[in-house]
Design goal:
By secondary structure, this protein is an all-alpha fold. It is built from six helices and no strands.
């Protein structure tokens, strides 16, 4: 049966689109925070509010999907659950990245982190538009292609950022400087996670490859 011919639940689709708008808002807030950090550090609290709102939306989507045959959607319950949790992961990782700036006493974000926030803004916009396409039945492909392009750009920025951190650590033998480099690298990993969660569709937090610790962990 085609997407357009299948009836769908308007309440469920409203929630899905609301989740997309929440992702979009998180990207905008994180960019604003990073561009003017530490002056805009209080925006981390706004991101926390988005994270809590994302949890509520995700719970409501899953609860709606649990209605079984009474609820119809342009995806089955398993795909709907995966979509809801993936969108929630983006918001969680964005909030965690903002929180770690204060937790680790970052004085100023890396240039790559600021550029990364622009990637997240672009991805959030594409995600919100793609979710609206589920309701209208219009073609998702252009949005998926652009999200993939942004993912590649995020990969490049992460590589550049990690290379810059290692170069800085190599110029000093100070253990304190190396520790700062490690903490900053973990923050960059969290930034990447907030973009890649949507592509992977998984609920697992990104991990630092050297330490094996989760972005959700406390120092």
């Amino acid at each position: 049966m085609s997407l357009l011919s299948r009836p769908f639940d308007s309440v469920l689709m409203d929630l899905v689109e609301e989740s997309g708008r929440n992702v979009q808002r998180c990207g905008l807030l994180l960019r604003e925070l990073l561009v003017d950090y530490p002056e805009r550090a209080p925006l981390a609290q706004d991101l926390k509010v988005c994270e809590q709102e994302g949890d509520r939306i995700t719970h409501d989507i899953i609860h709606r999907l649990a209605g079984g045959g009474r609820v119809r959607a342009p995806f089955d319950a398993g795909d709907g659950y995966a979509l809801a949790t993936a969108l929630d992961d983006i918001v969680d990782d964005s909030e965690q990245a903002a929180a770690q700036l204060g937790l680790y006493g970052v004085e100023a974000p890396m240039e790559q982190a600021v550029e990364f926030s622009e990637v997240l803004v672009g991805a959030g916009e594409q995600i919100a538009q793609a979710l609206r396409c589920l309701r209208t039945g219009t073609d998702l492909a252009p949005h998926l292609v652009e999200i993939h392009r942004l993912e590649n750009e995020g990969d490049r920025l992460q590589r550049d950022g990690v290379a810059s951190l290692f170069a800085g650590a190599g110029r000093t033998s100070s253990s304190r400087s190396r520790a700062r480099s490690t903490r900053a690298r973990r923050s960059l990993t969290c930034l990447r996670g907030s973009r890649s969660s949507s592509a992977n569709g998984g609920a697992e937090y990104p991990r630092d490859r050297r330490s094996g610790s989760s972005c959700q962990a406390t120092p």
